[in-house]
Amino acid sequence: MNSAFPHATGKQPGYRPNQVDEFLDRARATYEQPLAASVGVTSSEIRHTAFGLKRNGYSARHVDAAMDRLEEVFYDRERRARMAQIGEDAWWGEVQQLLSEVRGRLERERGKRFTVRGIFAIGYRRSQVDAFLDRISAMLAGHGTLTAADVRGVVFHAQWRGYDEDQVDALLDAVVELILATA
Hints:
Helix content: 55-70%
Order of helices and strands: EHHEHHEHHEH
Number of domains: 2
Distance between the termini: 28 Å
Number of helices: 7
Strand content: 5-15%
Largest sheet: 2 strands, antiparallel
Structural class: mainly alpha
Radius of gyration: 18 Å
Protein backbone atom coordinates (compact mmCIF):
# COMPACT_ATOMS: atom_id res chain seq x y z
CA MET A 1 0.00 0.00 0.00
CA ASN A 2 1.59 3.27 -1.06
CA SER A 3 0.32 5.96 1.24
CA ALA A 4 -0.58 9.36 0.00
CA PHE A 5 0.15 11.18 3.24
CA PRO A 6 1.47 14.70 2.94
CA HIS A 7 5.03 15.22 4.10
CA ALA A 8 5.98 17.33 7.10
CA THR A 9 7.24 20.74 6.17
CA GLY A 10 9.86 23.07 7.53
CA LYS A 11 11.80 21.95 10.56
CA GLN A 12 8.96 19.76 11.81
CA PRO A 13 9.97 16.08 11.59
CA GLY A 14 7.54 13.52 10.26
CA TYR A 15 7.15 9.77 10.52
CA ARG A 16 9.51 7.56 8.57
CA PRO A 17 7.59 6.73 5.36
CA ASN A 18 9.01 3.21 5.04
CA GLN A 19 7.86 2.30 8.59
CA VAL A 20 4.38 3.73 8.03
CA ASP A 21 4.00 2.02 4.64
CA GLU A 22 5.23 -1.33 5.97
CA PHE A 23 2.82 -1.20 8.90
CA LEU A 24 -0.12 -0.25 6.69
CA ASP A 25 0.77 -3.09 4.29
CA ARG A 26 0.65 -5.52 7.24
CA ALA A 27 -2.65 -4.05 8.39
CA ARG A 28 -4.15 -4.43 4.91
CA ALA A 29 -2.97 -8.04 4.65
CA THR A 30 -4.50 -8.79 8.05
CA TYR A 31 -7.79 -7.14 7.18
CA GLU A 32 -8.07 -9.04 3.90
CA GLN A 33 -7.74 -12.39 5.73
CA PRO A 34 -10.76 -14.05 7.30
CA LEU A 35 -10.79 -12.99 10.94
CA ALA A 36 -10.58 -16.58 12.17
CA ALA A 37 -7.31 -17.04 10.26
CA SER A 38 -6.01 -13.60 11.17
CA VAL A 39 -3.00 -13.56 13.45
CA GLY A 40 -1.66 -10.24 12.24
CA VAL A 41 -2.38 -6.70 13.29
CA THR A 42 -4.89 -6.00 16.09
CA SER A 43 -6.59 -2.83 17.24
CA SER A 44 -4.39 -2.86 20.34
CA GLU A 45 -1.24 -3.08 18.22
CA ILE A 46 -2.45 -0.16 16.13
CA ARG A 47 -2.96 1.91 19.30
CA HIS A 48 0.55 1.12 20.55
CA THR A 49 2.47 1.49 17.30
CA ALA A 50 5.05 4.25 17.18
CA PHE A 51 7.04 5.32 14.14
CA GLY A 52 10.50 6.81 14.01
CA LEU A 53 10.92 10.45 13.08
CA LYS A 54 12.65 11.83 10.04
CA ARG A 55 12.99 15.19 8.36
CA ASN A 56 10.49 15.44 5.50
CA GLY A 57 8.69 12.28 6.69
CA TYR A 58 4.96 11.78 6.60
CA SER A 59 2.93 14.39 8.48
CA ALA A 60 2.41 13.01 11.99
CA ARG A 61 -1.01 14.66 12.28
CA HIS A 62 -2.30 12.96 9.14
CA VAL A 63 -0.82 9.55 9.96
CA ASP A 64 -2.14 9.71 13.54
CA ALA A 65 -5.64 10.49 12.27
CA ALA A 66 -5.49 7.56 9.85
CA MET A 67 -4.23 5.26 12.61
CA ASP A 68 -7.12 6.32 14.86
CA ARG A 69 -9.63 5.45 12.13
CA LEU A 70 -7.84 2.19 11.43
CA GLU A 71 -7.97 1.22 15.10
CA GLU A 72 -11.70 1.85 15.18
CA VAL A 73 -12.26 -0.33 12.07
CA PHE A 74 -10.17 -3.17 13.50
CA TYR A 75 -11.84 -2.88 16.92
CA ASP A 76 -15.29 -3.08 15.35
CA ARG A 77 -14.26 -6.16 13.42
CA GLU A 78 -12.81 -7.78 16.57
CA ARG A 79 -15.95 -6.87 18.53
CA ARG A 80 -18.23 -8.53 15.98
CA ALA A 81 -16.06 -11.65 15.95
CA ARG A 82 -16.02 -11.84 19.76
CA MET A 83 -19.80 -11.41 19.92
CA ALA A 84 -20.22 -14.21 17.39
CA GLN A 85 -17.90 -16.40 19.46
CA ILE A 86 -19.38 -15.89 22.95
CA GLY A 87 -22.72 -14.20 22.33
CA GLU A 88 -23.81 -10.61 22.70
CA ASP A 89 -24.83 -10.89 26.36
CA ALA A 90 -21.48 -12.39 27.37
CA TRP A 91 -19.63 -9.72 25.39
CA TRP A 92 -21.57 -6.95 27.16
CA GLY A 93 -20.73 -8.72 30.42
CA GLU A 94 -17.03 -8.38 29.56
CA VAL A 95 -17.52 -4.68 28.80
CA GLN A 96 -19.36 -4.26 32.11
CA GLN A 97 -16.47 -5.98 33.94
CA LEU A 98 -13.97 -3.62 32.27
CA LEU A 99 -16.12 -0.63 33.25
CA SER A 100 -16.20 -1.87 36.85
CA GLU A 101 -12.40 -2.15 36.92
CA VAL A 102 -11.97 1.35 35.49
CA ARG A 103 -14.45 2.84 37.96
CA GLY A 104 -12.63 1.12 40.82
CA ARG A 105 -9.44 2.97 39.90
CA LEU A 106 -11.24 6.26 39.35
CA GLU A 107 -12.88 6.12 42.76
CA ARG A 108 -9.55 6.08 44.57
CA GLU A 109 -8.38 9.20 46.37
CA ARG A 110 -6.66 11.86 44.25
CA GLY A 111 -2.90 11.49 44.48
CA LYS A 112 -3.24 7.79 45.35
CA ARG A 113 -4.87 6.34 42.26
CA PHE A 114 -1.69 4.62 41.04
CA THR A 115 1.65 3.50 42.42
CA VAL A 116 3.91 6.49 43.04
CA ARG A 117 7.41 6.08 41.62
CA GLY A 118 10.41 5.88 43.97
CA ILE A 119 12.23 8.88 45.35
CA PHE A 120 14.75 8.99 42.48
CA ALA A 121 12.32 8.06 39.70
CA ILE A 122 10.23 10.14 37.34
CA GLY A 123 6.61 9.41 36.51
CA TYR A 124 3.55 11.21 35.20
CA ARG A 125 2.60 14.42 37.03
CA ARG A 126 -0.01 13.28 39.52
CA SER A 127 -2.12 16.45 39.43
CA GLN A 128 -2.44 16.29 35.64
CA VAL A 129 -3.36 12.60 35.64
CA ASP A 130 -5.91 13.12 38.40
CA ALA A 131 -7.47 16.06 36.55
CA PHE A 132 -7.82 13.96 33.38
CA LEU A 133 -9.25 11.05 35.37
CA ASP A 134 -11.83 13.45 36.79
CA ARG A 135 -12.85 14.22 33.20
CA ILE A 136 -13.18 10.49 32.53
CA SER A 137 -15.31 10.08 35.67
CA ALA A 138 -17.56 12.91 34.53
CA MET A 139 -17.92 11.31 31.09
CA LEU A 140 -18.86 7.96 32.62
CA ALA A 141 -21.44 9.75 34.79
CA GLY A 142 -22.96 11.35 31.70
CA HIS A 143 -21.50 14.82 32.28
CA GLY A 144 -19.29 15.83 29.40
CA THR A 145 -17.78 13.89 26.56
CA LEU A 146 -14.43 12.46 25.63
CA THR A 147 -13.50 10.76 22.41
CA ALA A 148 -11.06 7.93 21.94
CA ALA A 149 -8.77 10.46 20.21
CA ASP A 150 -8.91 12.70 23.32
CA VAL A 151 -7.73 9.80 25.48
CA ARG A 152 -5.12 8.62 22.98
CA GLY A 153 -3.71 12.13 22.65
CA VAL A 154 -3.44 13.15 26.29
CA VAL A 155 0.07 14.13 27.38
CA PHE A 156 1.29 14.37 30.95
CA HIS A 157 4.42 16.16 32.12
CA ALA A 158 7.08 14.36 34.12
CA GLN A 159 7.43 14.69 37.89
CA TRP A 160 9.75 13.21 40.49
CA ARG A 161 7.74 10.61 42.39
CA GLY A 162 4.98 10.82 39.81
CA TYR A 163 2.50 8.10 38.94
CA ASP A 164 3.80 4.89 37.38
CA GLU A 165 3.48 5.39 33.61
CA ASP A 166 2.65 1.76 32.81
CA GLN A 167 -0.31 1.72 35.20
CA VAL A 168 -1.69 5.01 33.89
CA ASP A 169 -1.25 3.90 30.28
CA ALA A 170 -3.04 0.60 30.99
CA LEU A 171 -6.01 2.48 32.43
CA LEU A 172 -6.10 4.84 29.44
CA ASP A 173 -6.08 1.81 27.11
CA ALA A 174 -9.07 0.40 29.00
CA VAL A 175 -10.89 3.73 28.67
CA VAL A 176 -10.24 3.79 24.91
CA GLU A 177 -11.63 0.26 24.70
CA LEU A 178 -14.74 1.30 26.64
CA ILE A 179 -15.30 4.27 24.34
CA LEU A 180 -14.90 2.10 21.24
CA ALA A 181 -17.17 -0.59 22.71
CA THR A 182 -20.00 1.84 23.29
CA ALA A 183 -19.59 3.90 20.11
